[in-house]
Amino acid sequence: VDRYAVFGNPIGHSKSPLIHRWFAEQTGQDLQYEAILAPADGFADSWRDFVAAGGKGANVTVPLKEVAFALAQIVSERAQQAGAVNTLYIDSSGQLCGDNTDGLGLVADLQRLGAKLDGAKVLLLGAGGASRGVVGPLLAAGVASVHIANRTADKAMTVAKLFNSQVTASGYGDIPTDHWQLVINATSSGLSQQRPDFSPEHLQSCQLAYDMMYGKEPTAFILWCRQHQVPLCADGIGMLVAQAAASFAIWRGVTPDITPVLEKMTTLVR
Ligand code: ATR
Questions:
Q1: Same domain, 30 and 82
Q2: Which end of the chain has fewer surrounding CB within 10 Å, N or C?
């Protein structure tokens, strides 16, 4: 049986094994998928052991995405742009390849939610790895511009410089007055029940507020957006399932239907 896994640290809470087992069942694919705990400095050894034991591919999560990026021999353009790898596999010539499906997952979920991406002006909050990974796929999906706002403005500027002039940056106090149709929270503020601290005037034209985090309870950002009458607010559970589906398709050549898996996830996670 072909073996797959998710590597991370911590990894016990990961929903990926469940999601991929449901995908395998749905598509009739015979495979195993497990969670493997690995420290950053032991990841390369852990991966080699896994391959020696029949491992065909893996997902990589926090804090190993940059280590996986460094380990991969061939890196896709979108992983290059993200500076991070969340999907590993070995190609037919035996080379270790790294890809990144996080941005594809976000775009797929925004489309599922009915967001109009073509020509949209996007306000993206946060300038860490999660933010950097989604800018390229948003542009590729046709958005007109992305403004990256971050608590530490310098970090936002550094990320924006990786892209063309469609991408601008500032601190939260200097967000330009514009019609932001889509506001996406890519900060980890939700982990501490906080939200990015900016003026609600920037939500005035917002059709969809999206938090890349998810949990049993709505995040502070989602609650705040609801309070300010944003018509549609969603958390990152759909992105999680959609990035997994894109990884599954890379490994197996079959794209699973995310809808039934998302329904099961929603009843389990919430
Ligand atoms: P990730 O890989 O999840 O992006 P990261 O690289 O550590 O993690 O980045 C965390 C992001 O969340 C940063 O943009 C951080 O802002 P700073 O760069 O100013 O530190 C942001 N962040 C974390 N906690 C926050 C909070 N309470 N309010 C606003 N932004 C927060």
A1: yes
A2: N
